[in-house]
Amino acid sequence: MESTRKLISSKRKSAFKQQALKDQITGILFTLPALIIIFIFGIFPIGYSIYMSLFNWQVTKGPFVGDKNYLLIFGSWWNLLVIVAGIGLFILGFFVWRKAFQTMNNGSRIAHIAGALVLILGGVVFVTGWGLMYETGNQDFLNSLIVTVYYALGTVPAEIIIGLVLAYILYQDIIGKEVFRIIYFLPYITPSISTAVVFQIIFSSRETSLANQLVGFFGIDPLRWRFEPKPVLNLLGFDVSGLAGGPSLALLTIIFFGIWSFVGYNTVIFLSGLGNIPKEIYEAAEMDGGTKWDRFWHITIPMISPVTFYLTLIGFIGTFKAFNHIYVMRTPSAQNTVVTTSLLVFDRFYKANQYSVATAQAIVLFIIILGLTLAQNKLMGERVFYG
Amino acid sequence: MDNSVVIPNTKKIKKETPAGKILGKAFLYLILIAGALIFIFPFYWMISNSLMTLGETITRKMWPAVPQWINFLDAWEQASFSKYFFNSVLITLGTLAGLLFTSILAGYAFGRIDFKGKNVIFAIFLATMMIPESVTLIPNYLLIRGTIIPLPGGTWINTYWALTVPFMANAFSIFLLRQFFAQIPKELWDAARIDGCDHLRFLVQVVMPISKAPIMTVLLFGFTGAWNAFQWPLLVTTRNTWRPLMVGLYGFIQEAGPQTNLLMAGAVITIIPILIVYFLTQKQFTQGIATTGLKG
Description:
The complex is a heterodimer of chains A (387) and B (296). Chain A has 387 residues and is mainly alpha-helical. In chain A, 75% of the residues lie in helices and 2% in strands. Chain A has helices at 2-52, 68-74, 77-99, 107-136, 139-171, 177-189, 192-202, 210-217, 232-235, 249-275, 279-288, 292-321, 324-329, 341-350, 355-381, and strands at 55-58, 60-64. Chain A has a two-stranded antiparallel sheet with strand order 1-2. In chain A, helix 6 packs across helix 10 (249-275) and helix 12 (292-321) runs antiparallel to helix 15 (355-381). The longest helix of chain A is centred in the first third of the chain and has 51 residues, at 2-52. Chain B is an all-alpha fold. In chain B, 71% of the residues lie in helices and 0% in strands. Chain B contains 15 helices and no strands. In chain B, helix 2 (18-50) packs across helix 15 (260-291), helix 4 crosses helix 15 and helix 5 packs across helix 9 (171-181). The relative contact order of chain B is 0.14. The chains are: A mainly alpha (387), B mainly alpha (296).
């Protein structure tokens, strides 16, 4: 009796082991095709980019130059150090503001004052470092970063807000909900080259262009739209110029396109997120007598926050990668006001054949994206409410 | 939330009178319709301009007096669109076949098989979603040119392989399918295993038939990705042999310049296949988004 039980259990054990081994082999085999392709075209190139950036590489590999390609960007490592110190102080200030002196009486007030001081100091150090870098480093690259930030700030928040509003309305009992959803998503899936051409024509600098007829309706003189390098603020009458004066009208036109093409994606994802909020919560709130607005603000916004977080992340990473529509919509006369970093890198590589300079710039861009993602995770991740 | 009870109900009562309710609803529809008009207008403009004479596009008519269907023929022939179109179809089909093969297998492995190293590999896959193309573009170009390692046939520039193979797997599709596959009840697999089913048969006979929605979602995203690709094809095609439609259209933009009507006809041609696939898959696609972890 005892022995048979042992026999069965050992048999079972070996069958179990066999299954585990089988699973191990099957698992590896199943992932292998994807692994090979993603490794060769997605992971290996990162290492190879770093390798390339250490050489003088123009079409073919030249001599080893060490950090020279990076120095072309930063001017000197010292400049970079100042900037990093500024960012470090900024992060420190943030933590002091939030967490320090908690045990003391009045601790949070002291923490806020101390935190604010460190934050300001961080800001000053950062700006100093940026100034130094701008003097001795690669201005084209730094300009492209500014343009990229303008583009990101011009598109992502607008896309999130419009997407959420449209999704929230669609989530009410709306007749023809399906039709609206299909229409909203259309710009996202159609090729951006094809739709950017239409925007080119709508926003052409001709007096008879549709955009000019529209602003003419409000008594505004014809504008040059995607040919206009002047900052929007300047056109509105403010005394600013150059990249420091904010996004140019040309960039704004591209931002319009960005929003138009991406809002539908956010709407669709938000809509499915709204569907996951339990109806009972709304019903309970309704019984408590909250207004529709209360319900939106106190239930929908917190319950949807994981989706908002995901979409913001995807949105920011997307703007740093954006290429096709900017490449099509840019004009020579808009100068550098529409050249984002991904375009700059492509130009360095494709037009100027400076492979190693381009890879060094791309790696710096990658590190910036990585840093921003981490910061966003930290900042927004804490505020996200997961059920 | 507690003090929301205290909020006087007058507001609420006012809002929910029938007239107010209808007005509120009407306002919501107004926003939705305005949004829809903005989203659809560029498409309307594309189509109406593609049917105009050149003169009509300059005077900015809203609709052509007589639709000029000949524009499509002109665009098709002038810019060798027929060649590009055919190329794009083949490239997209090849990419999709590869993509579905790799991501269904990997998605299944990550979602349903326990094996060592799984979490590490999956994390690495996910991390690749953050990498900007700018970083991978140049080494990939050298790779395809045959500079880094010798390739069968010397160089892959201007070949079918250059345009398809690099896109035959991506982390996004694997992630999407994994999320769905992981939700399938374990009892199903236990029952199948007792019947002597192995993973591959279970995947093909049980999992795939009930996973139409996420697979269609991958298909739609894969199709648009391959069909709309521009930067990479621009880089690796120097001749017409395998040049896809988007690069052709871009060339046409440079050439056709002021011939707005032909340009728009070209643009319409490029979006038709996408529209067809979108309308065919959109129902499953909605479900796919709702049932997978796509929403974060």
